[in-house]
């Protein structure tokens, strides 16, 4: 994998270079200190991956991404973002413009601690992109190809009784949600509870961005919010979100409970509470993302006879999370991203059309 490192900080370029040098199969082809130089080097070196700073002189990271749209062959881009309101807003824009993912710029007091943090955050994303590149080039040995077969349950997929839908999503999620939520009607008859793996501040920016472009109301969730149809509630980064019953109403409860499988917010955590509070009146959707968060929660939901939907591989940025749900035999339906809004719209409509 050929990589271009773009950052206006000499020190941070070194930190990224040193981190990536630990990853087998990675070649640093060049570095750039501003957006204009980055575009010149992208055209010259044609890297597979660009690590791109958000704030830079001459052209910033967002402007670079916009320029990349005109290239016939575009590299994958991982943004390097500061945990600020401005950084979160820019990162949300970047993800909608096609960036693969982002990592937070470490701000540890010791250089070795910053390197360790970046290593933990960046290298798993690089390895996922390496595997994708190997598949594109046809260099994955046949015995390494893990194929899964989708065996739908025998009953028809009839979600008309659903009273709540939980959505779990990670890498590629902001763009996927931006594709689905704006297509939903203002009269949506169910609420959406969404766990998007993101750090604090970033989920607030994501919710505000989706609220601007959607007919339904999109909130960063807060304790005490009554869960209402036609509303979407996104779990705040760095917290856990669950459903509780208060005075006969279903409400949001945000907690500081520990991470589950390194995830906070956690899809499993949310789905577990949905199973307890809604029983078979809940439905789960697992979309693009790395890892297996959501599989255990779907397993519990299936014990309550809930419907489970997984995003199909072709439309996923990363097939990890839905793959695990499908492989475990938990999915009632596997659907492409461009039909996901139809599934959601039909979920709470009594006597609505059947999705098969």
UniProtKB/TrEMBL annotation:
UniProt keyword terms in alphabetical order: Chemotaxis, Cytoplasm, Hydrolase, Phosphoprotein
Positions bearing 4-aspartylphosphate: 53
Primary location: cytoplasm
GO molecular function, one term: protein-glutamine glutaminase activity
CheB-type methylesterase domain boundaries: 159-340
Gene Ontology process terms (BP): chemotaxis
Keyword Lyase: no
Keyword Transferase: no
Catalytic reaction equation(s): [protein]-L-glutamate 5-O-methyl ester + H2O = L-glutamyl-[protein] + methanol + H(+); L-glutaminyl-[protein] + H2O = L-glutamyl-[protein] + NH4(+)
Catalytic residues identified in the record: 170, 197, 293
Domain Response regulatory: 2-120
Cell compartment(s), UniProt: Cytoplasm
Superkingdom in the source lineage: Bacteria
Entry EC number(s): 3.1.1.61, 3.5.1.44
Post-translational events: Phosphorylated by CheA. Phosphorylation of the N-terminal regulatory domain activates the methylesterase activity.
Gene Ontology CC entries for this record: cytoplasm
Domain notes from UniProt: Contains a C-terminal catalytic domain, and an N-terminal region which modulates catalytic activity.
Described purpose of this protein according to its UniProt entry: Involved in chemotaxis. Part of a chemotaxis signal transduction system that modulates chemotaxis in response to various stimuli. Catalyzes the demethylation of specific methylglutamate residues introduced into the chemoreceptors (methyl-accepting chemotaxis proteins or MCP) by CheR. Also mediates the irreversible deamidation of specific glutamine residues to glutamic acid.
Name of protein: Protein-glutamate methylesterase/protein-glutamine glutaminase
Source organism per UniProt: Bremerella volcania
Lineage: Bacteria, Pseudomonadati, Planctomycetota, Planctomycetia, Pirellulales
The gene coding this protein: cheB_2
